[in-house]
Amino acid sequence: MPQNDAHFDQVQFQNSFVEELSGEISTDTRPRQVLGYCYSQVKPTPVREPRLLAWSEELAAFLGLSRPPEQSPAVDALAGNLVTDTMKPFAARYGGHQFGNWAGQLGDGRAISLGELTARDGAAWEIQLKGAGPTPYSRRADGRAVLRSSVREFLCSEAMHALGVPTTRALSLVSTGDLVVRDMFYNGNPQPEPGAIVARVAPTFVRFGNFQLMTAANELDNLRALADYVIRRFYPELGEPSEAVYVRWFEEVCRRTAVMVAHWMSVGFVHGVMNTDNMSILGLTIDYGPYGWLEPYDTTWTPNTTDFSHHRYAFAQQPQVALWNLVQLGRALTPLVPAIESLNQALEHYRTTFTATRQEMMRRKLGLTTITQPEDNALLEDLYQALTTSEMDMTLFFRQLSHVAPALQTGMEDEEPLFIELIDKASYTPDPSAVHDSLLGWLRRYTQRLRQETASGEVIREGMLAANPKYVLRNYLAQQAIEAAEIGDLSKLNRLMQVLKTPFAEQPEHDELAAKRPEWARFKPGSATLSCSS
Ligand code: AMP
Ligand code: MG
């Protein structure tokens, strides 16, 4: 059980990953190929002047931690300057497919795990410092993270959690007092930027790529040990590892990954870099980099400038890419499961779970009790095209639709003015011109369908409001919070943190954070486009 709200430097860590798997013990942090191990023990490199910028109260309470003073031993520990007796810091060894190509060894190049804390649920939660300095996996990079990308990871992890999306969490954001040089636009213009470290939290940060690398390196003992570790600790309900259990486990990873991606599609989240090293073995959203939120409904959109030519990781691609990634994981597991056919069959779980979960989420978003008739499926399909043509803001559309649903259902009011108002509020193509014909047609069909529902308009509205968030971390809002934080003003960051804790609540005093993206943000770097430089 956790200690009663202690400071981070005073809590006891467990070290199951280090103790149960084989790792190298070396003080050498020079970049290199590491062979034969699941991880390397490596200490964080101290920073100049750690200062706490943000703290997730709710997660901290869950972990039994109290908020430390801005500068304190606890903050030193969250910055990697203080390694306590029970911490056994390590960097994990993994590989992965990047943009479809096998990249060989990648590994934790700037993330260092400290060990695990026992939380209020009695389970162990791993704490990882991102930006904590070089490791054997840093390749040619510095092991650091800039404030800009750390703010984005911190805010989005917690916002996603509040939306009910499976995700890794973020406990703290600490500025380092050091400058980090980055060529943000990859245009030969490197600039010094403030550095930061996020302490992120998850049961484990093991990725598809950990298994892939073991198999690629023909380290079958490590492959099995890692699979057994993950199954025993995180999938104990499946039973003791065996060939049949490996298959059931893979099925479960398929299922969880499907649920995660269905959530992304439901809230308009674009991960941006769905490489297999960025896919959690627990089906959690992991590695927040050049991610973004759909504003105008454009399924071909990706925020990631590195992906502009291929759009491999665009919004609409995500379900297929997740499947492709699962196929790669399945390949990596073949040494454990000679009956390859059973792995192939497990992939079916991805397809069926994704389809069912996506449909269930859309049903709730639209306030329908069932989606049964073929016309209902057509209604869903046609919506996506209509939203695209009308350049509707995804979040605003569903939220506004929730509010007008009762009026549409009763038919007491003329609905056409309601449609026009909805379009006016949520479309980036303001004129009620012919552009909106398909959306208007869709809204009329939807109104007819809604009238077949027997629940009261009020009940429908409440259900829809609980499925359609008012507040998401709009790209330009994150950017504004970053720009303020870079000059020492944390008010925007704090406000976003606060509001995004209850994204389904009305919070009328924060209406402006739920508004349509302003025109100036359309092409502004950081708001509409993001590079991988972080
Ligand atoms: P990402 O695209 O962030 O998932 O990172 C891909 C790989 O590059 C991982 O192995 C990271 O650890 C590594 N990496 C990214 N940025 C840095 C950095 N600043 N220093 C060291 N390694 C990094
Ligand atoms: Mg990564």
First-last Cα distance: 37 Å
The proportion of strand residues reads: 5-15%
Rg for CA atoms: 24 Å
- Helix fraction bin: 40-55%
Number of domains: 3
Mean pLDDT over the full residue set: 96
Q: Which molecules are bound besides the chains?
A: adenosine monophosphate, magnesium ion
Give the total of beta strands: 13
Helix/strand structural class: alpha+beta
Topology:
Blueprint: H1 16-20, E1 23-25, E2 39-41, E3 51-55, H2 57-63, H3 73-78, E4 90-92, E5 95-98, E6 101-105, E7 111-118, E8 124-130, E9 145-146, H4 147-163, E10 169-182, E11 191-202, H5 208-216, H6 220-234, H7 243-267, E12 269-270, E13 292-293, H8 318-332, H9 340-366, H10 374-389, H11 394-410, H12 415-426, H13 437-450, H14 457-465, H15 475-486, H16 491-499
Parallel strand pairs: 1-2
Antiparallel strand pairs: 2-4, 3-10, 5-6, 7-8, 8-11, 9-11, 10-11, 12-13
Helix pairs in contact: 4-15, 5-6, 5-8, 7-8, 7-9, 8-9, 10-13, 11-12, 11-14, 15-16
The protein binds adenosine monophosphate (AMP) and magnesium ion.
